[in-house]
Amino acid sequence: MTEEIIIAGFGGQGVLSMGKILAYSGVMQNKEVSWMPSYGPEMRGGTANVTVIISDERISSPILNAYDTAIILNQQSMDKFEKTVKPGGLLIFDPNGLTRLPERTDINIYSIEAADEAGKRGLSKIFNMIVLGGFLKLKPLVAPEFIHKGLEKSLPARHHALIPENEKAIEIGKELLTPVHVLN
Amino acid sequence: MGELRLMKGNEAIAEAAIRAGCDGYFGYPITPQSEVMEYLMAEKPFERTGMVVLQAESEVAAINMLYGGAGTGKMVMTSSSSPGVSLMQEGISYMAGAELPAVIVNIVRGGPGLGTIQPSQADYFQAVKGGGHGDYKMLVLAPASVQEMCDHVKLGFEKAYQYRTPVMILSDGAIGQMMEKVVLFDQVPRRTDAELIEQCPWASNGRPKTRNHNIITSLDLDPAGQERVNLKLQAKYRLMEQNEVLYEEIQCEDAEYLFVAFGLSARICQKAIDMARAKGIKVGLFRPITLFPFPSMEVSNVGNRVKGILVVEMNAGQMIEDVRLSVGCKIKIEHFGRFGGIIPAPDEVVRALEQKIIGG
After folding, report:
1. Rounded Cα–Cα distance for residues B149 and B352 (Å)
2. Most buried among B79, B84, B270, B355, by the most CB within 10 A?
3. Is the Cβ of A153 closer than 8 Å to some Cβ of chain B?
4. Distance of CA B266 to CAs B67, B249, B263, B332, Å?
5. Does B250 reach chain A within 8 Å, measured CB to CB?
6. Which residues in chain B have Cβ-Cβ distances shorter than 8 Å to A27?
7. How high is the ipTM of this complex?
8. What is the CATH architecture of B247-358?
9. Residue A103, class by beta-carbon neighbours within 10 Å (0-12 exposed, 13-18 middle, 19+ buried)?
10. Hey, what CATH topology would domain B3-194 get?
11. A86-105 residue pLDDT tens
């Protein structure tokens, strides 16, 4: 099993930390992982993305141009990464702020209104965990107990009191996922 | 087994320095390697092991602090990225001339000039052919994973002291910034003063009555003396060529074509191998781990068994010169590279193999 994922959105949405929690959870479950962030001028311009690879085998290239899953959280990222999903792959997006919805017909597409839900519940800081929950519902790569360990490892100790809230957000995300285009 | 962590390459370098028993880190911030000093400052090794961490006023100051520290036998390290490493070249040449051990990390970014902050491998020539003046070499290690970023720090210090030479770790912004699993080796205690005096009888760290002054210098105005220094250095480099070559062969046994690549490019080539083999193209990878000493004999042995070689580098064609010198002219050898901070995608590499080697 190898899952190649791109998570892309604005800086501040928790894109990098979502990837980090996923990667650390993979480590806890004894998977091979790599986490490759954008750190260049594009990040300074406000967009952020991270490539996460989780595999049972040694990971070759940490840099990819085609992905099994794209998690897309803003319009710039939709424009850039919709076309990079492998045929038959998965695209999850939050429609909040998007001006153009995905158009591919050869991939599975789900929307998740995570920003809206997080706002309603006053949980804007764990918006990214809601999105992660949606992804994990479709691709349960890592078992919940290892997500818990991943949260413990990737959050500083002073934030450990927030772990139950993060886990709750993951459960909310699983409920919130809406199919947009599903292949037979 | 050591401690398992998920770390950035830059952080792994910093933690490995602490654990290797490093006495002092001197550096100046520059993207994409600032996490090395950030990690050290946050981790406070001055409380953990007594290791000094100091932000110098410039890269020139940092490399000369290394010269001073190494001259007393202390285990010292610096890190920077391309423009900063260019500033250090005079100091590196002096350290090679004065035979001083140290580890110097270059997390390469795109150049020339101030260039970009994105990853590159365009400093191969500078690292391997002597970026400073005079006939000198450094042992140059090229890690391709976060695990090797960690392991090469320890190995680098061992070799620096074994040969009394500066050692360079030549990596790039991508491996510096990415996180992977890493198994950290156990803490090696910093050497005591007594151990240092015993292990570094050449060091200038206080003269007991039993010996003459130790003088650390790269200056000998008498040409006969300076030639002796050069002969000694060259003998050392020949010994390194005999004993310190490191490389990795991946899927070379049945290969009809060969990628030669180091560092990040080698990782991209591994993906390209999977893609090419899925199309029925039997290609393997030869990955030099030491860039000096270059695995000439070893790449020649593999290279002369295949129909063609594609050297993949994030530069305009630097290591390819050493591959051509090693393999000779009977085999077709071409270069594929992207420049200025662009990372080649695995499918681009496969296309280049098809166009430049198989179809060419």
Report:
1. 29
2. B79
3. yes
4. 33, 11, 5, 20
5. no
6. 4, 6, 181
7. 0.92
8. 3-Layer(aba) Sandwich (3.40)
9. exposed
10. Rossmann fold (3.40.50)
11. 999 999 999 998 999 999 99
